[in-house]
Amino acid sequence: MIVWSGRGFLSLLILFITIFFFIPILPETYIIQSFVIPLYIAAIFSYFFGIKWNKTLRVFIDKETGKEINFKSNHGLFWINMEYWGIIFPVLALLMLTQSLDKQGTEFYLSIFLIIIGIACLAYFSITLFKIKNSKISSIQFQKITTEAETKPSFVKEDITANKFENEDSTEYRPK
User: Fold this and answer.
1) What are the pLDDT digits (tens) for 130-139?
2) What is residue 142's predicted lDDT score, i.e. its pLDDT?
3) What average pLDDT score do residues 97-106 get?
4) What string of DSSP letters covers 68-135?
5) pLDDT in tens, 21-58
6) Helix axis angle, 33-54 relative to 9-25, nearest 10°?
7) Taking a C-beta distance cutoff of 8 angstroms, is the pair 101, 84 a contact?
8) Which residues 6+ apart lie within 8 Å of 91 measured at CB?
9) What pLDDT does 158 receive?
10) Res 166: pLDDT
11) Residue 121: how many CB atoms within 10 A of its CB?
12) How far, CA to CA in Å, does 151 sit from each of 60, 68, 147?
């Protein structure tokens, strides 16, 4: 059973689409690479779109209480946010590549090249994700961001107008 929240299923969908795209293209001798390259593509997609979609913060104002309600987006797959799948997919690819290092010729050099790409992706994704998660916005900047953003009230009880049908005769619909 696949469990996702928001747009998290797209990580797995991109992975399967690229796998089915690369298997017929690459020869049978490069079967490991036909799984590794889609893992890298899905990692890049998951990382960048996960950061983009999970950082959105929507602010709503409750009319009754006047309080601000903050809703943060949550896009994940198997209870893990999408941006973290950008790190998990290259780790899986590196595990597959290290098991295939006993090959000879061009497949060996291709595996080494893909390992270098995987390590570079892991380093870049990990460092930038660490910086993003550990950056703190001061409360003054946060207030400035929330007040400048367009607030759209939602989940708010509409004002009910009493006596909507003042001109109607209430005895008109009673049984006689």
Assistant:
1) 888 787 654 3
2) 46
3) 76
4) EEEEE---EETTEEHHHHHHHHHHHHHHHHHHTTT--THHHHHHHHHHHHHHHHHHHHHHHHHHHHH-
5) 888 888 887 788 888 889 999 999 988 888 888 877 77
6) 150
7) no
8) 122
9) 47
10) 58
11) 22
12) 6, 9, 8
Backbone angles phi, psi at 77, to 5 degrees: -130, 125
3-state class (DSSP) for residue 172:
helix
What are the backbone dihedrals phi and psi of residue 5, each rounded to the nearest 5 degrees, phi first?
A: -135, 140
- pTM of the predicted model as reported, rounded to 2 decimal places: 0.63
CB of 85 closer than 8 Å to CB of 4: no
Alpha-carbon distance values, 142 to 30, 74, 139, 145, 148 (Å): 50, 20, 5, 5, 10
What secondary structure does DSSP assign to 107-121, as a single string?
HHHHHHHHHHHHHHH
Task: List the one residue out of 105, 102, 32, 2 whose CA is nearest residue 40.
Answer: 32
